[in-house]
Amino acid sequence: MHTDFILRGLGRHAPDRILTNADLETMVETSDEWITTRTGIRQRHIVSPGEGCTDLAYGAAKMALKDAGIEADDLTHILLATYTSDYVIPQGACVLEEKLGVKGKIALDVSAACSGFLFALETARGFVALDRNAKVLVVASEVNTHRANFTDRATCVLFGDAAGAVVVTAGDPEDGPRVLDVKLGTDGGLGDLLTVKGGGSMSTYKEGEPVRDDYFIQMQGREVYKHAVRNMTGVCKEILERNNLSVDDVNVLLPHQANLRIIEAVGKKLGVPEEKVYVNVDRYGNTSAASVPLALSEARDNGFIKKGDLVLLTTFGGGFTWGAALVRF
Description:
single chain; Peroxisomal Thiolase, Chain A, domain 1; 2 domains; nine-stranded mixed beta sheet; 10 helices
């Protein structure tokens, strides 16, 4: 039996604290002009001391649940896409479940770096396909700044902290935005181009040992740029072809907000006019897995996405991981 996968509610949350390019000028050898020219980023939201991944996730989740008209206890599944969970154990989805005041749900983390939201969305579609009564909360939340090396100007200027969320259920097209298709891919052979290794079982620390550089985000920027543009462009073309659609059918292109130059390159290669491409990287920076759902919620609420629009989502992340999704609003 055919199942329509509905986004019943959308939500987002960013911490109150803001780090501007001018602030970064006092912390590392850089300038507002250097950052803006190369990345398009002017500011980013960052957590305050004592504020963690699941705090941001909770804010986005509450907004999505309210938007969906669903109580937390009505949920059957809680998925948290992140690589910056509060702890190794307990997993972040379980911590979020507790913060939502519910118990006994299927709660698990999904790790696919910046592509985490789309990987979690496809996981949610699987749960709903198995049980049409399932109500799945999908949250993507990242505290990237805790894994950013603020002595490395090539990486620390890029990242911010935030969360985005959706509630996925079965339903009819009139019940809300409909997820038409999701297409994902990976290439582990390129994993060493973008890494966060420190603290893993192959890069351990002993008590009292200083934190090494590999604890922080490390990447070969030029190579990552090349593969990000190539793979996001490719997967967008593939998902459109698979659904007998063309670029002309797309009303909004919403890419992972990694870097304005990547966003512009993907739009240009696909042939999508600039006015159809949603951009908020200037205000949030790269929020990793949170990037796409944060932008999706914001774009709907500010009217950039309108009822009836076909929205093409695409992302790329460490691993390497990438994906695209088609959503009809």
